[in-house]
Design goal:
Shape of chain A: globular
Number of domains of chain A: 1
Largest sheet of chain B: 2 strands, antiparallel
Low-confidence stretches of chain B: 1-19
Order of helices and strands of chain A: HHHHHHHHHHH
Number of domains of chain B: 1
Strand content of chain B: under 5%
Oligomer: heterodimer
Number of helices of chain B: 13
Structural class of chain A: mainly alpha
CATH architecture of chain B: Orthogonal Bundle
Helix content of chain B: over 70%
Radius of gyration of chain B: 25 Å
Mean pLDDT of chain B: 87
CATH topology of chain B: MetI-like fold
CATH class of chain A: Mainly Alpha
Mean pLDDT of chain A: 89
Largest interface: A-B, 85 and 93 residues
């Protein structure tokens, strides 16, 4: 079936709408003008300079990178273990447990934000790094579980059974057989988790207190006053996201090729 | 199959009885369970508790206060209106886009799909921010229209319903396109050919043969968009500029501006129940969608 010209027109229109934000933000970040206007009257790197010369933005970047690194590492350890348990063990209420693990991303993050704000406020842990790490880990774990459950499903259980029958302990089996074979998926899950933590804004804005992350700072600037520095931050984020996504896809493909050999 | 065989069924094939299962599973799921109980279930139970407590006793006072607050009712109405309109826009445009993608050559198709996936991954903040540049009074759209002489004064796209709907639709679109596209390519081409050979027009083939086969996937992804719209916070806050309050923005007010934890808790629980109910429907529809494909 061939779409009619009207269908084609509407389709291209909505595709344009979809990618418009990226098409507009990136050229704007190289603007030489001091106000937001498109197309930019001249080109310069002044907004990138203004980002890299701003201590507040750099501090926020360091904080975001640190928080995302810690949370995604914790998330991958806890999430991979849980995915293994969910796939390889059979127990009562397994689906309920899985639903519970996924709940932080199923529910609107504003609910998690309010609940954590009140809970952390009660125990005097608002604006602490521990609170942030717990929150971010909870929010990235579901993505890890989704990736790892699929990976473990396609992983031949007989490889583990062979290791056991050869006398390997459970720990050795995991260390020498399971982890090496799942390494590409673990790496991809880590990247997905990292990107999600790095982008998280709702819960962070509620519970971070005086800590600034890149999204939190962006969000508050977008509500109060908009400086063109944000265009460079946004463009850097777009580049960074695409880079992460491509790396994750590349690693997973690499894993499939080596598994097929 | 007789009853004896059915009781022997899957359990006999399993390696261990279910009651022993938890012991064997605990080393794996236990650590995460501790974190989820402390960091998520606990806080959620705490706000359930808060929502029912008033002056040291348990009652429905907070919920009654909400129901008697005109602002709350207006915000609920607002949230539903924006959600319905956004979902409608996403469903129509998303369906058309997904349909168009299936008609493309493989090379173009992969490029377009890659673009959709990339936008899905780019931060919501970035995608929201761009609309300020595009739709603002001195933005791309208004300047083009002014330059072309189509309008005399800039149109107010931002800080009203229109801006919020445009921004939210943009963000939810990939969530609908990707599952819908997956369902569309699974439609058996022979059905369409059979209809054509029997003399059906293109329009009839689409509406009577193709479209019905994509309804389950459309329904489940529409439900997903509704769920995500209801609790949306960032985009309405930025593009609505406080003039298009949705439930999530009201929560922000009850926490950060005029602290009323019991009311914030009650609003959260209302939103939570709505979301859970819709999620159950989504699960049903999703099962229907994958059942039809099999």
């Amino acid at each position: 079936m061939n779409p009619s010209p009207a269908t084609r027109f509407l389709a291209i229109l909505s595709l344009t709408n979809l990618i418009l934000p990226i098409l507009v933000v990136v050229p704007m970040s190289f603007s030489a003008a001091s106000s937001l206007s498109f197309p930019p009257p001249g080109l310069s790197l002044r907004w990138y300079r203004s980002f890299f010369e701003s201590e507040a933005w750099l501090d926020a970047m360091v904080m975001s990178l640190a928080l995302a690194t810690i949370s995604s590492t914790l998330g991958v350890i806890l999430g991979s273990l849980a995915a293994y348990g969910l796939r390889r063990r059979n127990f009562n209420l397994k689906n309920v447990l899985e639903g519970n693990f996924m709940a932080p991303v199923i529910l609107p993050s504003i609910i998690t934000a309010v609940a954590l704000y009140i809970a952390l406020g009660r125990i005097g842990m608002l604006g602490t790094l521990t609170g942030l790490v717990v929150a971010h880990t909870l929010l990235v774990v579901p993505y890890v579980i989704v990736v790892m459950v699929v990976a473990i499903k396609s992983f031949d259980i007989r490889l583990e059974q062979v290791a056991w029958t050869m006398g390997a302990s459970w720990f050795t089996t995991v260390r020498r057989v399971v982890i090496p074979l799942l390494a590409p998926n673990i790496a991809a899950a880590w990247i997905f988790a990292f990107v999600h933590s790095f982008d998280e804004v709702v819960v962070t804005s509620f519970i971070a207190g005086t800590y600034e992350t890149i999204p939190k700072k962006m969000f508050s600037e977008l509500i109060l006053e908009i400086s063109p520095t944000i265009t460079s931050v946004a463009s850097l984020l777009i580049g960074f996201t695409i880079l992460c996504l491509m790396t994750a896809i590349w690693i997973q493909r690499l894993g499939k090729v080596s598994a097929a050999r | 199959m007789d009853r004896g065989a059915s009781t022997l069924g899957p359990r006999a094939a399993g390696t261990q009885p279910r009651s022993r299962g938890w012991k064997a599973a605990l080393p794996f799921v236990g650590p995460l369970l501790v974190l989820v109980v402390l960091g998520f279930n606990g806080p959620i139970l705490l706000i359930v508790n808060y929502s029912f407590s008033a002056a040291g006793t348990y009652s429905f006072v907070n919920y009654q206060e909400l129901a008697a607050t005109p602002v709350f009712l207006r915000v609920i109405g607002n949230t539903f209106r924006i959600t319905v309109l956004t979902t409608f826009v996403v469903a129509v445009l998303g369906y058309i886009l997904a349909y168009w993608i299936t008609s493309l050559s493989e090379r173009t198709r992969n490029i377009v799909l890659a673009l959709v996936v990339v936008t899905f991954w780019v931060s919501v903040l970035v995608r929201t921010y761009a609309w300020i540049v595009v739709l603002g009074n001195a933005g791309l759209v208004n300047r083009t229209l002014l330059w072309a002489g189509a309008i005399d004064a800039p149109i107010a796209f931002l800080y009203n319903d229109l801006g919020v709907i445009i921004g939210m639709a943009n963000i939810q679109m990939p969530l609908l396109i990707l599952p819908l596209y997956a369902a569309m390519i699974k439609v058996d081409q022979r059905h369409l050919q059979a209809a054509a050979s029997l003399g059906a027009s293109e329009r009839t083939i689409f509406w009577r043969v193709f479209f019905p086969q994509t309804i389950p996937a459309l329904a489940s992804s529409v439900m997903l968009v509704v769920i995500l719209c209801l609790g949306f916070y960032v985009t309405p806050a930025i593009l609505g500029g406080g003039r298009v309050p949705m439930v999530a923005n009201m929560l922000d007010t009850y926490i950060n501006s005029i602290p009323r934890w019991e009311l914030a808790s009650a609003v959260s629980i209302v939103l939570l129940l709505f979301t859970l109910a819709l999620f159950m429907i989504y699960r049903r529809l999703d099962k229907w969608a994958s059942g039809e494909e099999a």
